[in-house]
Design brief:
The protein is α+β, with helices and mostly antiparallel strands. Helices cover 38% and strands 14% of the residues. It contains nine helices and ten strands. Helix 6 runs antiparallel to helix 7 and helix 6 runs parallel beside helix 8.
Amino acid sequence: MTQPTENRREHLSTALVLATSGVPALPLRAGKTPFGNCPRCTGNACGGRPNMKTPGPCACPAPCHGWAAATTDPNVISSGAWRKAWMQASAVAYHPGGAGLTVVDLDDADAIAWARTTLPATQTVPTTRGEHWIYLGAMQSANAVRPGVDIKSTMAYARWLGSGTGTITALPDAVRALAAKEASPARTAPQAVTVPAPVGDGPCPHRTPTYLTRGLAMAEQRITQATSGVHATVYRTFLAVLAKHGRCGCLTDTHITRLFTAAQTKGETPRHCTDAWANARTALGL
């Protein structure tokens, strides 16, 4: 949906201010997700950026490849290649790690109460459901380090919601320890999650039905056998499945449920499963 002109100008102005301050910015579409790759980069045919450890666009000047599109170059942000994205953008995001920052994303009142008794005070920004606590210093991003708590820094993006209140302080060891422990919420029975199955008219790569069945079984096994970096494994597995089977329309709700169930059994929350699926579809331009 095209945004009103005043909103578009406000988003672009905000992104340029962030870039001038050394904060890599990028546009978000409806649903708080990055824009899908352009046709030139669909399926990461250009080599991709998500696996790179530094922000910045690939050879394509469009805002492709999720968090990696974030840039501090005002010429890129205001270029014609980004104009269509700004016309449709619903918000502005930034790459915390690229700015030397870490965002502790607190999703609810319980998470905020925990932070207030555990972490040193720092700059806080209200969000739709909770708060962002922003610290000076970059680290590895990690989701679901404890109930209602995500860490967004390197290779991640956060929605820009203003400068907030309070004085930013140095990244404490207590936050680094959360990612090091790879803590996760108490596990509950997997919940049913509804996401749209890809509907495509691309060529079908399945020689026989067994081909798809075996591929799904291998994907489930990859998630189940993960011993570390579960969230990253889930995302990469979703990405691989969609890259192989997401354009011909053969994936069904039953297939997706199997993948989500395997992920939740390893401790992923339904929301993180949904986010990983959406991010994988975005990365592939689906």
